[in-house]
Amino acid sequence: MGRGRGGNGRLAPPAWLTAGLRPAPAPIPWAAVVRASLALSLPLAAGLALDRPAEGALVSMGALSGVIGDTADAYRMRIFNIAVPQLFGALGVTLGTLVFGQGWLAVATLTLVALASGMISSIGAVASASGLLLLLNAVVGAGLPMPDPWWKAPVLLTLGGLVVLALTLLGWPLRRVAPERAAVAATYRTVAELYEAAGSETYQEKRHAVTASLNQSYDLILARRTRQHGRTSSLARLLAQLNVLIPLLEAAPAADLRVRLHGPLPPAVATTIRRLADAVETGPTGRPDPELPTAVRPAEKAVEHALRHAATVVHEDEPDPYNVDDRLGRPAALTVRARRAARTMLLSAPSWRYGLRLALCIGLAQALVSLIEVPRSYWVALTVTFVMKPDFGSVFSRAVLRAVGTCLGLVSAALVLAEVPRGWWDVPVMAVLAALIPAFSAKGYAFQTAAITPVILLLSDTLNQQGFDLVLPRLYDSLIGCAIALVAGYLLWPESWHSRIGDRLADAVADTAAYVDRAFGGPADAGRLRARRKLYRDLSAVRSEFQRALTEPPPTGTRAAAWWPLAIAVERIVDATTAARIRVAHGAPPPDPAEVTAVARELRELAEGLRGTDTLFAVRTELPGDDEGVLAPVRQEVRAARAIAGPELR
After folding, report:
1. Residue 255 structural domain
2. Checking phi first, is residue 625 left (phi over 0); if not, alpha (psi -120 to 50) or beta?
3. Residue 422 and residue 466 in contact, taking contact as beta carbons nearer than 8 Å
4. Based on the domain organization, do 163 and 253 belong to the same domain?
5. pLDDT digits (tens, 9 = 90+) for 16-73
6. How far apart are the first and last CA of the chain?
7. Are residues 301 and 340 in the same domain?
8. pTM of whole model > 0.85?
9. Which of 59, 128, 236, 538 is the Cys-Cys partner for 121 at CB 3.0 to 4.6 Å?
10. 64 and 115 both lie in a single domain
11. Sign of torsion, CA 406 408 409 415?
12. In contact, 468 and 414? CB cutoff 8 Å
């Protein structure tokens, strides 16, 4: 992947360098915009009214952390996502305040905090946000003078998070539908869109949207269930309504193949699914029988059977709460999950590897500012923290996007610091700048950085009173931090240059082989359905890993681009296998066991070959079997996948 040429013939930057600079087509979250504006401007106004602007700025800093972390949908999860990281942030600022101005003691302390932060981040989403706030606030506490006594800063920062939490909870009584129910209804609507896209080029895109929506719905319901004793009828109903989507999803690949061969599906299919979504969201109003044309082909019978079963369950008066297969198993006790999390953090090689990378970068950043006379240079370590955050994607692309976003943010900050007088004018300016954070965050990392930078600078100026003199030092500090992250956090680590996408793709191919074996080995069971959903979830993770790798410079980005068609081919193999199984379940002749074994063997050979090569070459492979049999589409997709693979994969 080299440089491209623009429409005027001039050389254009490579795609991996500019991918993050294109704004994502995401809607503006207006509720979050209003909440951020109030959460950051009200503390400033209160501080000015009480003649304590520094304390007000600290509360706004805590609110900024809460605004960034408020990413969940369900209110219970939002409380958890905001409150828990704030506790870690309070601990971080306390540690930073205690070593402020202590030279090498501060270097050692922040390095250890970075190691703990990196390892904590490997546990999960909330732990990742907690680790981020732990390190960020430790860096701020070690770099900025905090008001005495030592406990005041953590209390004020935590108060800022509580302000965001309070503003969030104000909308709870106004929420018309429980978030879990709304999520399940939204999943039904994505399934309707999937059936409308059957046979078109957008089918795969819609299927990915269904996978993401289904995962979110299951995660929300599981999170709610872990906080309840026993199983309530409302939760059992949601689980039952979500589970009956699985047969519809299994029938979708068969429907896609049917549309390609015989024409479009009846519009009543998507219409019926949308009516079921309305019934899930607002409650059933009866038990209407779906108005569907008579099914003739196996795929049509599968869709009809799945729709009628879904309609029965959605309109069921009272599902048995102890006879609901939630496909997730019973949640482990809190103590068991805590032990698992601790084991993941302490014994996982990736956990230690990321913790050591982050500790090395923070140690270098803090040592540099301790050796060089740079006033208020906490921004170097702050930049390293944001760039090295694992959840945001490629370290390389984040460093580039952070530098670009900081430059854009500093331009607006320079205008504010140069033209707006300090004092009460800070309140409306902060209200406007804070509102941009959630709006820009939805567009991408560079845009989020551009929105956050002037807010942090304005709050820092309230504490430092340096005015316009802050702008250029912060630019230099940001560039230094990006350079440290690129060298010590990226270039020095072999895994940055030898991506594991091949191994992950090989695992997905091996799991697909096992799924082919199991798909035709007997009647449907919950184990096979769970295995299929896990396989689609794993394929979604592989796709995310590829998308991250595509933003890396060569050779990683080039290799990911070369292997991307193979990742798509594996997804199509899974779809074709599911379609074949559904057709067999509804009347099509079953395949010869020898043919199933041959297809699975070809996939296992492909998986083993992927583990031992970094290069793909075009080859052709023939599979045994009748080209008119039920496995013909599967064998066609396997041939296409192996046609991408190298000669050594034959």
Report:
1. 179-314
2. left
3. no
4. no
5. 556 656 776 667 778 888 889 999 999 999 998 998 888 898 999 888 888 887 765 5
6. 27
7. no
8. no
9. 128
10. yes
11. positive
12. yes
